[in-house]
Input
Amino acid sequence: MTQKLPVMRICVSCRKTFDRSNLLKITNDHKKGIMLYKGIGRSAYICKSKKCYTDSKIKKKLQKALKISFKPEFLDILERELQSII
Ligand SMILES: [Zn+2]
Output
């Protein structure tokens, strides 16, 4: 059995490191703009613990980490994504 080496990333909320496959990834793609799970560019991650995805400041933390401000359309998408984890 071959095991892939996990890629570890830090959650923007709790600042703990997790295997990337267990994180919600938000990327500011240099061509397409903000994307979920896809894209190339500056990325921020949220772990799937209730404390983090229900963090009332999570959107602020993400925007700070990505150094951008989210458009209302993206906030809707993000909101739906976070609710689908619950
Ligand atoms: Zn977290």
